[in-house]
Amino acid sequence: MKIKNYKNLVKALENEKDNALIRLVYVSNIIVDNKSAPLLFDHIRSHSEKYNRSNNIKGMLCNNNKCFLQCLEGTKAVLMPLMARIFNDDRHDHVRVTLLKTVDNYSFNDWRMRSLNLDDRLWSKDSIQANSPELKKFLPFRPFEWSEWYTEHFLETMRKFDDVSQSYNEDLVSYNIIYDPNFHRATLLDSTLFHRFLLVMVVVLLVVTL
After folding, report:
1. Contact, 153 vs 99, CB < 8 A?
2. What 3-state class would DSSP assign to 96?
3. For residues 70 and 56, what is the distance between their CA atoms, to the nearest angstrom?
4. Global model pTM greater than 0.85
5. pLDDT digits over 188-210, tens only?
6. Given this model, what pLDDT does residue 11 score?
7. What is the mean pLDDT of the segment spanning 30-57?
8. CA 210 to CA 198: how far, in whole Å?
9. Which letter does DSSP use for residue 147 in this model?
10. Mean pLDDT along residues 72-91
């Protein structure tokens, strides 16, 4: 199932009551370069905070700086206006609802949109992601290609990282949202060979001076 627009989403849920609890997953492509994607991701998440809390929406949002996957759980009455805005948001395109079902209970613990960067280039060796064989099964991250079953399997895996005892700021660190804070790109100054060259130059200068 891939619902490509809001009109078809309305049709798919036309027989459900407004108070029906819905689990919805959509994927989309990010329309920004990789340098801007983290800022976009953070902006979307922070602006969702008030709306999700006041409307009892739960779920998670993750990305790999190329595409989003978001799971939303809430009543039909509150999810439909939100999805109308999501379909019309020009910061991403090719929005596809890949999972849509009524459920009896929420599967995530609170209103927060659980966020985990799935770009393995940004993981440090001691990060949660790098040490999770469960997460590695979903790499490379290609949610557009996933079946409904595999999407559900991904959600179940992500629920294991859902810790309600964490504060919002702690979540940023322990879940490595946007980027891994221990990550940095290698430069010439990081090079062991460069450091050895400097050491040799210092020794040569000392010998010449003496």
Report:
1. no
2. strand
3. 16
4. no
5. 444 455 556 667 777 777 777 76
6. 97
7. 72
8. 18
9. -
10. 94
Sequence-distant (6+) residues with CB within 8 A of 96 are 2, 3, 4, 26, 27, 28, 144
Alpha carbon dihedral 156, 97, 10, 49, in 10-degree steps, equals 60
* 99 token code pair: 């999972």
**Amino acid found at 20:** A
Encoded tokens for 125: 């060796």
Least confident of 38-52, 95-109, 130-144, 174-188: 174-188
The pLDDT of 148-161, averaged and rounded, is 88
Q: Do 55 and 22 meet the contact criterion of CB atoms below 8 Å apart?
A: no
Classify residue 81 as exposed, middle or buried by CB count within 10 Å of its CB (0-12, 13-18, 19+): exposed
Structural contact between residues 100 and 73, judged by C-beta atoms closer than 8 angstroms:
no
How large is the average pLDDT for residues 109-132? 69
- C-alpha 112/C-alpha 109 separation (Å) is 8
Give the integer Cα–Cα distance in Å for 41 and 34. Answer: 11
